[in-house]
Amino acid sequence: MKNILVFAIALFTTFAFAQKERTLTLNKETNLIEVVYYHDNGEVSQTGTYTADGKLEGKWLSFDKKGNKTVTAFYKEGKKIGKWVYVIDGKLKEVDYNNNVASL
């Protein structure tokens, strides 16, 4: 279990996207690593989960520096799936993904 957490921390350092702060929590029920990334101003930037082997999994949310939701996304074993919702200039745009391939 400790090895998974050490690996996850090393992996998340790579995926920090120039964000300085993040929190990691291992959910023992799902065996997923829950992560919250923060913008430099302290607002939440992204939330989501990773598998123990570092693949994105489940629902991910992205927010701008003012705290407004900009993307709702879904992953399965590191691949984009399902309906993603983007907020662009105050308008919603939906994109369906199947096995990492978008259909508009």
How would the blueprint of this fold be written?
Layout: H1 2-14, E1 21-27, E2 32-38, E3 44-50, E4 56-63, E5 69-76, E6 79-80, E7 82-88, E8 91-98, E9 101-103
Descriptive account of the structure:
This protein has 104 residues and is mainly β. The chain has one domain. The chain contains one helix and nine strands. It has one helix at 2-14; strands at residues 21-27, 32-38, 44-50, 56-63, 69-76, 79-80, 82-88, 91-98, 101-103. Strands 1, 2, 3, 4, 5, 6, 7, 8 and 9 form a nine-stranded antiparallel sheet that branches. β8 and β9 (101-103) form a beta hairpin. It is flat and about 35 Å long. Mean pLDDT is 85; it is low at 1-19.
SS-derived structural category: mainly beta
Helix share bin: 10-25%
Oligomerization category of the chains in this entry = single chain
Largest sheet: 9 strands, antiparallel
How many helix segments? 1
Radius of gyration: 14 Å
Strand content: over 45%
Question: Could you name the key traits of this structure?
Answer:
104 residues, mainly beta, 9-stranded antiparallel beta sheet, 55% strand
Offer a concise description of the structure.
Keywords: Signal. With 104 residues, the chain is mainly β. It has one domain.
